[in-house]
Amino acid sequence: MTATDVLLFDLDNTLYPPERALFNLIDVRINRFMTEQVGIPAGAVDALRREYWAAYGVTLQGLIRHHGVDPEAYLHYVHDVDVAGRLAPDPELRDMLSSLPQRKAVFTNGSNCHADRVLAALGISDRFDAVYDIRIAAYLPKPYPEPYQAVLADLNVPAERCIMIEDSRDNLRTAKHLGMTTVLVGAGATPEYVDLHLPDVRALGAALQLAEAAP
Q1: Among 140, 144, 150, 192, which is least packed by CB within 10 angstroms?
Q2: Cα dist. 147→5, 44, 135, 153 in Å?
């Protein structure tokens, strides 16, 4: 494995398992925002969200482009969820992160405020040097290349010296295209552009040690 300077971690369903169902709370808030704040009929919400996800990667971009939504109002509303009710300190995760010598950053399609609450609930806020949210490229989300490029520029590091740790295959496809090493977290098939597939992010430290030791 190429020498690595930076580890870029996705946030939701990567640093904690999807079984915690935190993102389910955000989904409910997105639907409510669309009906209560934007005025979209409830029966049209699911189809619109699928359409916007397919076209833009996140619901927010569709709402900005087609409904004139204020992105800051959206981010504040949809991330107003009970994070501490779903997540708890994870000493094993903290120890694993502490064992890794590389710089570590969070790279999320969510907001900084949401990321801060998640990291605090997991007890790992001080394990990261930076948090990059959807604002990094004017609300363009992963898997668009622009936010990746903006993160790399801010970190002043080439893609080839980064590892991207994600639960999203689409997001990892862009990372690999840019030259990053890719780590998929979670169940399911392993695409050819994924370098390492782990069931749980807490296995990352041992897996990287094995990869570095391999001839």
Answers
A1: 192
A2: 19, 30, 9, 10
Give the DSSP letter string of 84-127: TTT----HHHHHHHHH--SEEEEE-SS-HHHHHHHHHHHT-GGG
Q: What is the model's pLDDT at position 52?
A: 95
pTM for the whole structure:
0.94
> How many percent of the chain have pLDDT more than 90?
92
Rama region for 100: left / alpha / beta (φ>0; ψ in -120 to 50; rest): beta
CB atoms inside a 10 Å sphere around CB 105:
19
Amino acid at 55: A
What pLDDT score does 215 carry? 60
- Once rounded to an integer, what is the mean pLDDT over residues 78-98? 97
Residue 2 is predicted with a pLDDT of: 62
